């Protein structure tokens, strides 16, 4: 049995060193192993890409004196030419806005910013869930639905990368 556990740990470590997350994005074993590797800025692979019913979980703690932080789901990691951005979420603390947008073929779309309230508090934990549905992403913060963002990328399975940056500490991805 010890050999089986060692083999599993070696496989998990190999996937983490490769900079990729597996398709479960957060089984209990991987959450424990991934924790020290959740360094901002973060870039990870979503195995199999997005599809209706798939959910991305981002848990973290906002920095003490934040300006902003961002979470993006992209079609690959390419910088030149830049990868399409299916959704970019940006929490801006000076304006108390949670803006979202997308970039397709190098063109940014219309930015959306209306929210019923600003859910992030400096030096406090948060939980963002991005639920992929057929026509849209549903965004939940701390269990409350905050807004919908309708897909601008047609091929959901091409959305295979998550990028996180800014004034936060990551505690869990799932």
UniProtKB/TrEMBL annotation:
<dbReference type="InterPro" id="IPR001079">
    <property type="entry name" value="Galectin_CRD"/>
</dbReference>
<protein>
    <recommendedName>
        <fullName>Galectin</fullName>
    </recommendedName>
</protein>
<feature type="domain" description="Galectin">
    <location>
        <begin position="42"/>
        <end position="174"/>
    </location>
</feature>
<dbReference type="InterPro" id="IPR044156">
    <property type="entry name" value="Galectin-like"/>
</dbReference>
<dbReference type="InterPro" id="IPR013320">
    <property type="entry name" value="ConA-like_dom_sf"/>
</dbReference>
<dbReference type="GO" id="GO:0030246">
    <property type="term" value="F:carbohydrate binding"/>
</dbReference>
<keyword id="KW-0430">Lectin</keyword>
<dbReference type="Pfam" id="PF00337">
    <property type="entry name" value="Gal-bind_lectin"/>
</dbReference>
<comment type="function">
    <text>Does not bind lactose, and may not bind carbohydrates.</text>
</comment>
